[in-house]
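#struct-help
A.M.: can someone run this one for me? Single chain, 363 residues.
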Amino acid sequence: MSRLSGMGGRLYRGEKSFDIIGKRRRFYALSGIVIIISAVALSVQGLHLGIEFKGGSEFTFTASSVSVAQGQKAVTDSGITSETIVQKIGTNKLRITTKTLTNAQNDAIENSIAKDFNIPNADINVLSIGPSWGKDITHKAIQALIGFLLVVLLYLALAFEPKMAQAAIIAVVHDIFITVGIYALVGFDVTPATVIGFLTILGYSLYDTVVVFDKVRENTRSITSTGKYTYSQAANLAVNQTLVRSFNTSLIALLPVASILFVGAGLLGAGTLKDLSLALFIGLATGTYSSIFIATPILATLREREPAMQALAKRVAQRGPQAPGEAVVIKGDAEVSNIVTSTHSKENRERGPRNQPKRKNRR
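D.P.: on it. Structure tokens below:
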């Protein structure tokens, strides 16, 4: 058995435990710092919207030798003085993005590129999008995001309980805000592929959160009747029981996304893959973190405010700490207590082996 699987077994049985719920203020503070950084990046730099959302013209071409300076010179030679973004993709591909231009201005830039880079006009891919179409795409993306959140909220409220739905939605908003803030910080363009990545990571984040919440519900189903553990203690055990599983699934999901991001986008220069893979990479990592360190602690905070849970916490406090050497495993409605004290072990050693009575020979 590997060390990680052995750790997972000890966490599941309650033999080892990380106090995640008890130290939730630390994780709240960490998320708060990242959220502040994201808010500053959004307010200072803002999002770099692609032409699909704001409209504009895009010229993409391949030549034997390309550079950003050559692309800027080609636009200047055409007589266009508006803001221009020139990006080098890979080693021999260039993309020039401008504001919305007329057909005559598009032709002027296309002819200037063909002349400066010595390529035919047919090899230049020209994409022109008007501002009205871009606004329509933006509205549809916002509607898709809002509709997704409403459907998820309704499902979680029906499948679990309202407070679990609230905690899950808070975690999702946490993931979206951090991902968008990092996008603003690194300056990547927001394209339709980015929106697809956002919706994908929301689904993955909720999937991981639902798995943890299902274990929390199993551990707390009859917690008020037993009166031995607070809601936070049972929720903390549920998080520990799913900790290794969340780590394994997230790592396996991040590996192919990382290969797309660093190999496909970094070395091959695929722009669409870059937009999609960055959103997926950030979102998967943030979603795993929020399902463990944000969603469940928030759920425990909401439930501990209930009068029934406050009364339960008082009963547990009056009961006092468990005896030394007592390990408790909560599995749904059943509680298995395995008490192994040094006194019991000493008594067993003093008794020695048990002598069985001799049997008489039968005739």
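A.M.: thanks! The first strand starts at residue 48 and ends at 49.
D.P.: also worth noting: Residues 323-352 have pLDDT under 50 and may be disordered.
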